[in-house]
Amino acid sequence: MTLTVLFAVPPLWDEFAAPLRAALAERGLDVTLVTEAAPEAVDYIVYAPASPLQDFTPYTRCKAVLNLWAGVERIVGNPTLTQPLCRMVDPGLTEGMVEWVVGHTLRHHLGMDRHIVNPGHVWDPTCPPLARTRPVTVLGMGALGTACARALAALNFPVTGWSRTAKAVPGIDCLQGEDGLAVALSRAAILITLLPRTPDTENLLDAATLARLPQGAVILNPGRGALIDDEALLASLDAGHIGHATLDVFRIEPLPQGHPFWTHPRVTVTPHIAADTRPGSAARVIAENIARGEAGLPFLHLVDRRLGY
Ligand code: NDP
Ligand code: OXD
Fold this sequence. Notes:
31% of the residues lie in helices and 17% in strands. By secondary structure, the chain is α/β, with parallel strands linked by helices. It has a seven-stranded parallel β-sheet with strand order 8-7-6-9-10-11-12. Strands 2-1-3-4-5 form a five-stranded parallel β-sheet, covered by helices on one side. The model has no long low-confidence stretch (mean pLDDT 98). The structure holds NADPH dihydro-nicotinamide-adenine-dinucleotide phosphate and oxalic acid.
């Protein structure tokens, strides 16, 4: 039987149509891939936050909604969505996140700014310390956090990871719970936040938790803006406690003109480019999940609605 897959993100159609068709065919799936269809005829929906589709009620035959984004906070609470929801775990996206995190970690670790911007032509031959002396903490040890933690550990950074449930990742000191968070923060010369936005993670970094970081700590946030209390972060930067914050994600995106982050001398803004879903590799993940749905196997990367990620 030919399946109908609704690609519900018209702005991304040109980028995704060919890779999706190729991946579906490669997986041996007989699919009509469309951008419009009678809701009751749709078997799977490929979705992203830019999708105009908000009411899932009429999609009575739909077996799963397959998100192109890793983050699901803009869809997970949709009361009309009763179908299984899968988030994106894409090798290409993960690779990009590892590159962003390693790049920005090394910028701060090596003190690159001193040499890139040196208007006084100061010859200061102070050599940076080795990574093995610079502890890094990763909050969120999921698909992305674990890949980043592993890459940093491979460069000899002592890495602590923190997550909701217990983990065992070779070379990483994995902690959980409130006590684990306190320890993880206290060690973090560089803190990387790769948590999803949920009611439990909102403002996780507030005045009290920021105060647990060592003096001069650097924060890299490619997770979600709402993980950090903006005012508390600015206060901590101004007080000299936090050394620098490199932020990729914000409560409001694009970050509004006039927001203090744009002009703060110790804040770097990157415009939500830490990692992108890559059509070639992501299409294979979508095809695999459709194949699993058709074979009656559990979907990969299924979202837990109760937890919100
Ligand atoms: P995963 O779902 O694989 O991992 C999430 C991690 O966060 C898990 O380790 C989970 O713990 C942990 N976590 C969740 N809630 C809590 C909590 N209350 N306390 C402690 N730990 C918690 O997600 P990904 O790694 O794929 O993605 C992470 C986030 O990265 C996305 O949700 C998105 O917000 C962001 N992102 C940003 C991008 C960008 O370009 N800036 C691109 C892609 C994603 P456990 O393992 O125990 O479940
Ligand atoms: C994502 C993102 O969640 O790009 O995939 O932020």
